[in-house]
Amino acid sequence: MSRTAPTAALTESNSDSRKTSQNDHIYEEMLAAILEQRLTPGTKLSEDTLGEIFGVSRTVIRTVLQRLAHERIVRIQPNRGAFVSEPSPEEAREVLQARRLIEEGIIRAAVCNQSPADIKGLKRAVAEERLSLETGDHEAWGRLSGDFHLKLAEIARNQTLSAFLRELVSRTSLIIVQYQKGALSPCSCDEHAEIIKAIAARDEDRAIELMNAHLRACEDQLNLRENDTKADLYSIFSKPVKATGKSRGAM
Amino acid sequence: MSRTAPTAALTESNSDSRKTSQNDHIYEEMLAAILEQRLTPGTKLSEDTLGEIFGVSRTVIRTVLQRLAHERIVRIQPNRGAFVSEPSPEEAREVLQARRLIEEGIIRAAVCNQSPADIKGLKRAVAEERLSLETGDHEAWGRLSGDFHLKLAEIARNQTLSAFLRELVSRTSLIIVQYQKGALSPCSCDEHAEIIKAIAARDEDRAIELMNAHLRACEDQLNLRENDTKADLYSIFSKPVKATGKSRGAM
DNA sequence: TTTATTATTTTTGTATACAATAATATCTTA
DNA sequence: TAAGATATTATTGTATACAAAAATAATAAA
Questions:
Q1: Whole-angstrom Cα distance, residue A193 to residue A174?
Q2: Do B173 and B142 form a contact (C-beta atoms < 8 A)?
Q3: Nearest beta carbon to residue B158 from set A97, A104, A158
Q4: Considering chain A, what percentage of its residues have pLDDT values greater than 90?
Q5: Are B179 and A110 within 8 A, CB to CB?
């Protein structure tokens, strides 16, 4: 297949055919698929198949997979291929701990740098979020819920921190897919709204506290016991352990 | 060139020829070259040339360059190629701000998680650092100075944060190459030693304060005025600006 | 039937070929 | 000579070919 005549992608309209952003386009497409849970943890990402789907050779698919792997959304096993990441409970705790730290820093900066337009933007984001929840657009909600945090990061005017948070938010999505206990609690919008209020009021301490509570609430909704399949089988069929045995691991 | 008969690399002994880590090996080699200032900011990284040097095809060089690009050590310009990054003053401030935030979090965790062995390890790291300074091994010092921070991160037992800091430390090296004003101040060892003491004493607040001072001192040794060549030419040949004019940019 | 071994197929890793773009050199014209 | 236009060369982007490894299927032995 020549560079000038790309076959049409099977899944995608591909409105603007700038070839510079061909990588980017496939990357966005795959990331969206993962974040919207159309691709679930553990799914094999065959290079050939993806190449056919997007109408490109394995070369460019490989580039995209490596990028996703660097962001820990995808795990590449040597000579075995790429798979949608299955974050361990340990990793889940790490990601949420990192988010608490980084989002605290972001709030500090955002409280200083905020403009009225910024606050308006945040409120708009929460309104969208609330709408998606009312209309029952579940996939959109997952995305928009993260977008609020990314918008907040933009206000902090530190692209380096924004990039880190972007990765963490994506990984959080995967974590939620894997470990969410019950249904999603829709109170998230209200918590976001409260955080905006505190920032607008320049109440740094309160904003930080609200954010921390928000993220801890998220973690509390997860079932992060060490339930590796293997370990489970062993524990199930071996002599019973003490009721208090299962260590929750130090955070 | 077949997979079974890799031509010997021109620069490298390549003692263990596990092919799994061929990428990794080239990556490490290039990273070291950049951090030890054998490759300076702006240097063009030609795929062909690197391929010849390491005795591999452009395919694997490309993979390595993309990895370095993701870590912001290398910048890839579409259709132009890869170059060693030239971080802007803005980016330099961002990186150091991010480091202050993340290393504060790391210290908090390290103060909790520390074992006597950890403290011993840190002290050993500083001793090595001091030795390299005394023997005048400048390149080693640059590396070891960063290693202290990475060892500290390990004690925090959060690989996600460690990975972020690893990237930031690498980028800091590039920043120092570009913007260091005078000679390097060798007091860094002493500052590291003080930080260890505070951590061992479980004095979280003092450890954090020392780390912040340490990182701010680093930033203060940089000349981060907006001296883009272009902007400079304009300002040099246009009517003189007020003496106080040059904004230092808000942190 | 089950297990172990071998053969086949599939899939990844790497090199290479070719196309497209950028960089450089050559030629033309004022 | 200088400036612009054109041709040439070099370099990156992508597809493809082939080798190595892994996964799967088929066969043989217990």
A1: 24
A2: yes
A3: A97
A4: 69
A5: no
N- to C-terminal Cα separation, chain A: 52
pLDDT of residue B43: 97
- Among positive and negative, which fits the CA dihedral A123, A128, A133, A138? negative
Residues of B with CB under 8 A from a CB of A: 20, 63, 66-67, 70, 78-79, 91, 94-95, 97-98, 101-102, 104-105, 109, 113, 158-161, 164, 168
Find out whether B224 and B90 touch, Cβ atoms under 8 Å.
Answer: no
CA gap A210, B14 in Å, rounded? 53
Q: How far apart are CA B123 and CA B189, in angstroms?
A: 10
Q: Calculate the CA A168 to chain-centre distance.
A: 6
Residue B94 to residue A66, Cβ atoms within 8 A = no
Residue labelled with tokens 């403290």: B119
- DSSP, res A39: S
CA angle A70, A71, A74 (to 5 degrees): 80
- Cα B177 from Cα B222, distance rounded (Å): 10
Kindly identify which residue of chain B lies nearest to residue A164, measuring between CA atoms.
B164
Residues on chain A bordering chain B, Cβ-to-Cβ distance under 8 angstroms: 20, 63, 66-67, 70, 78, 91, 94-95, 97-98, 101-102, 104-105, 109, 158-161, 164, 168, 250
User: Mean pLDDT for each consecutive 10-residue tract of chain B (251 residues)?
Assistant: 35 39 92 93 97 97 98 97 97 98 98 97 94 85 89 98 98 93 76 97 98 95 73 50 37 32
Token pair, residue A9, equals 């992608």
* Domains defined along chain B, listed by start: 22-84 (1.10.10.10), 89-220 (1.20.120.530)
Contacts of B91 in chain A (CB under 8 A): 159-160
Separation between the CA of B229 and the C1’ of D2 (whole angstroms): 27
pLDDT (tens digit, 9 = 90+) per residue, A149-174?
Answer: 999 999 999 999 999 999 999 999 99
Q: What is the DSSP letter of B180?
A: B
- pLDDT bin (cut points 50, 70, 90) of residue A106 is very high
